[in-house]
Amino acid sequence: xxxRIILLLAILLAFLSARxxxxxxxxxxxxxxxxxxxxxxxxxxxxxxxxxxxxAVGPNATTKPPRFARAVTVINCKGMVVTAGFWNSHVHIFxxxxxxxxxxxxxELSSQLEAMFTRWGFTTVFDIASILDNTNSIRHRxxxxxxxxxxILTVGEPFYPKGGxxxxxxxxxxxxxxxxxxxxxxxxxxxxxRRQIQNGAEGIKIFAGSIQSGSVLIMPLDLATAIVAEAHxxxxxxxxxxxxxxxxxxxxxxxxxxxxxxxPMSGPWTPDLVQRIKATxxxxxxxxxxxxxxxxxxxxxxxxxxxxxxxxxxxxxxxSDAGGQIxxxxxxxxxxxxxxxxxxxxxxxxxxTWREILASxxxxxxxxxxxxxxxxxxxxGLDADLVVLSADPAQDVTAFSKVAFTIRHGKIIxxxx
Length: 417
Known about the structure:
Blueprint: H1 2-18, E1 26-33, E2 42-50, E3 53-59, E4 73-76, E5 81-84, E6 86-91, H2 106-116, E7 122-127, H3 132-143, E8 151-154, H4 170-175, H5 186-198, E9 204-207, E10 209-212, E11 215-218, H6 221-233, E12 238-241, H7 245-254, E13 258-259, H8 271-279, E14 283-284, H9 288-297, H10 302-321, E15 325-326, H11 341-349, H12 354-361, H13 363-368, E16 386-389, E17 403-408, E18 411-414
Parallel strand pairs: 1-4, 1-5, 6-7, 7-8, 9-12, 12-13, 13-14, 14-15
Antiparallel strand pairs: 1-2, 2-3, 5-16, 10-11, 16-17, 17-18
């Protein structure tokens, strides 16, 4: 009898240790689920998450949490919408609330990252100008679960022509005791590209056109070409800040992969220019809200703001209509407007559909940056990076900003069940 009891206990322990549900498991129940920007939604659906992956997705009637799943967190999502986790492809880990992170507590960093990113559904962000060592430190603290935040990809320090640090950030750099490098030659720049990639940068950023007092300083083509070529040798994408059409030309001729902004300073894009950009397979990040914020900051009139937005919207719509890839980005960390509702409104006003906007947030960046095999949509086996919205963007695009929960790798990083 004693032997039987021991055997039964051993079997029970083996069963319990082999159960597929852990305390971190989640079931999202009753939601409307958009699997991708192109798929029809699943109404009244359930998504099951285990060990950071999606284990099942389907109608409630056929998709149930495993039996004995006592440790699963069940979230009632009735009346809500679930999409793949959002990407913000233009941010900066460069606000005062993130600089000198060694002096900041975990709570302070988590709070700042929530205000900027996770509160708005971003499970992945691409930082396209910061201090690489500082950003690496924050990433390490997120990866160790000390800090709650999104996955951060980074370019580290950007590349400027000599004397090309933009006039609008010089006082900020002085106030925060930050020095950014400038490169004297293509060889020196190429060496710095190699060094930054070795130190963890997933991309490179050039200022093809850098705004100075009353002018735009254009990066010499040989410098831009050397930087881009070295980044591409390592298989890394290159972003360009164009400022105007001369900056766009440098980006085109040097082989840049992503325009970090539209360029309304130079007026509407012609069909020929749009086709030339499209032929290079370049992606475009509109950052429409940025222009309104900047013009207001520097005393622009309502008429100037409206004209700037009109031109930037024309560039966005022209490129989207031509089949160009659009990536969502806000420039958060440079501007302090973190609420994304206005950007969605402006993109919709430019003529993009809610499905095109969803693609710019999910599948397009996942494809562009090499994550499409496990991110950017909802399917069994993919990363459990998800956004739960309290309203349906098919009815109102500002619903993309109405985030109830943000889930990164199966963990809730914003919202409370």
